[in-house]
Structure prediction request, 494 residues.
Amino acid sequence: MNEFELIAKTFMGLEPVLARELTQMGANNVQIGRRMVSFTGDKEMMYRANFQLHTAIRILKPIARFKARSADEVYEEIKKIDWGQYIEKGKTFSVDSVVYSEEFRNSRFVTYKVKDAIVDQFREKTGTRPNISVSNPDIRLNIHIAETDATLSLDSSGESLHRRGYRQESVEAPLNEALAAGMIMMTGWNGDCDFIDPMCGSGTLLVEAALIAHNMSPGIFRKSFAFEKWPDFDEELFDKIYNDDSQEREFTHHIYGYDVDMKAVNTARLNVRAAGLTKDITVEHADFKDFKKPADKSIMVTNPPYGERISTPNLLNTYKMIGERLKHAFMGNEAWVLSYREECFEAIGLKPSIKIPVYNGSLECEFRKYAIFDGTMKDFRQDGGVVKTEDEKRQMAEKHRFKKNREFKKRLDEDEENAEADIRSFKFRSMERQGRDSDRRGGDRRGGKFQDNDDERGSYKRQGGFAKGGFSKGGKPGKSNRKFSNKRNFDDED
Prediction:
């Protein structure tokens, strides 16, 4: 197959992680940009990027580049393209615009110009016009204008890739799935020990950790991708990718989630079950202040509240408690904490070994690693302990230092594409997935509805949260025995 240029979009701060994913996938000419990574590959690579990448939110295929010095110039350049090869008769389309330009202050104006040019070309050539659909188009287009440089792309993803499809319900301000996966990948964890999130909320970190541990493709939960409606869609090729589980691996450890809010616990359990991962993940109702040292080596990754909805005194006490529990009940392990305010980190009272700036929506946060050990740093190193890996040292060298005494305010002033970068803006509805007849998928690997073969719901017998003396695993489950129907079911589009 012929290679062509592709662009994988992501959130600010995740670009190096996404670049590593693409390199490992076999993409060529991988180049890091701002909130994006460009690369080259063939049709199979484009399908795999959509299906397998954990930290991408959109895969674009550029089809034209031109100078955009005026609205008329945009119109004429778009009209030069032979749209008959992309939009078949009777098909619908939509246009998303991302604009950073003195000339164009309103992205909607650019959107209208692009739509007008395409519609006018069809009218002149065929006497008919294609319809525009915002909610469910057959072809999605993306135009990006940076000053006078314009790039027009086909959107191969459709709905943002962070929307995996396993989230049934959510608590307030859920952590974005792509960010959660990126955080876990930054730690270097790949299933080699137990994983703990003591403030798990709706369970996003837990599910993403299980996907990484098993090396499962996050696209397995998706109902569709935009490229499936393209005229040149290769169904046989995509079926091969979709049904290939040769790269998946066993996970011999376990993932634990805890939350003081019972509603969050129930929500997390629902999402874990929807993902078919209850054998890998246990969610319990417990307060972090009661945390006891785990029996086995573990890594902790957590996203505590930042203070937007909690008064400052309570917030700082929460972070003080986090530091106290880490110091006294997590020796010999490492913990990673995502937060926003310097005062919160100071309240933890522990010295981090690495600080990585990332954006949670529009908030410039920091992801800090704490290596918890007994005695002095000197003794720890003499015993072979590693405070900061070579990769982490490189990350620290590349990133700017965290600003102290930061205020609670939004850090990004630019309009974000479809608000995709504003992680805290999402409202997730409860989804009842109805099985629908579909002959799309051959083979017997995946179905549209994931099932667990637990003997009964809530099959974990442990009660009362953190066990004294460590975690009481009771027969540690391995990989979930996920069962799939013969065909992949697609829900109707939203």
In short: Confidence is low (pLDDT under 50) at residues 400-465, 467-494. The domain at 177-222+247-425 is CATH 3.40.50.150 (Rossmann fold). The chain has two domains: 4-155, 177-222+247-425. The first strand starts at residue 4 and ends at 9.
